[in-house]
Amino acid sequence: MALTQLTVVDTAVDILQQFGLADLSMRRLAKELDVQVGALYWHVKNKQELLAQVAAKLLNTPELTVQAQEFATPADAVLHLSRKLYLALLPIQDSPEVIEVASAMQVTELNPVLQLRSLLEQSGLSEEQARFGQQLLLNHVLGSVAYRQNLVQLDVDSNESDGFDWALQRTVSGLTA
Fold it and tell me: Which of 2, 15, 52, 77 sits CB 3.0–4.6 Å from 107 for a disulfide?
């Protein structure tokens, strides 16, 4: 198999899903691809760029888009998209950390995140307010996913709701009022 940017990113996603972020090192990735570590740097500058590309791969799927016209209001579309993000990231070990790195790097290719901002603008927020709202919603989704993953990782038996949807509804209601 030829070493391409796509194979590097796909293999990184596989490692993340199977073993978590702690095992996603450039050395481990090179070993999985049966190449020298230096060969990876032809396709990604550094681990941060790799994580940004992994985040884009995780998020840029047809399942994580909404058609705004299918909802009564932009706020309903925001709720739906936020719930979809939560459910998509939940089974992927350490996904909140990967998405946070990409977000901090201001990666512009995270389509669902950009769509959140666009939907918030459609609800009447200014560009700046929509950006703040997007970050608030992303923090809520990622924090809730991390909390739920920590419960599983720590083997804490909890049937209590994490309050994700309750807080999401109040946040979106406040943002779009």
Answer: 52
Task: Please indicate, yes or no, whether residues 10 and 81 belong to a single structural domain of this protein.
Answer: no
What gap in Å lies between CA 20 and CA 127, rounded to an integer? Answer: 35
Domain range enclosing 20: 5-44
| Predicted confidence (pLDDT) at residue 51 exceeds the cutoff of 70 | yes
Q: Is 11 helix (H, G, I), strand (E, B) or coil?
A: helix
Q: What is the token pair recorded at 33?
A: 């691809």
Read off the pLDDT of each residue in 58-68 and give the average, rounded to a whole number. Answer: 93
Q: Is 60 helix (H, G, I), strand (E, B) or coil?
A: coil
Instruction: Copy the structure tokens of residue 62.
Output: 């047809």
Q: State pLDDT tens for residues 12-32.
A: 999 999 998 999 999 999 999
Q: What is the pTM of this model?
A: 0.88
Q: Phi, psi (5° rounding) for residue 70? A: -85, 0
**Can you tell me the distance from the alpha carbon of 177 to that of 162, in angstroms, rounded to the nearest whole number?**
24
- Reduce the DSSP state of residue 124 to 3 states and report it: coil
Rounded CA separation 89/17 (Å): 10
Position 57, amino acid: K
* 68 lies in the same domain as 134: yes
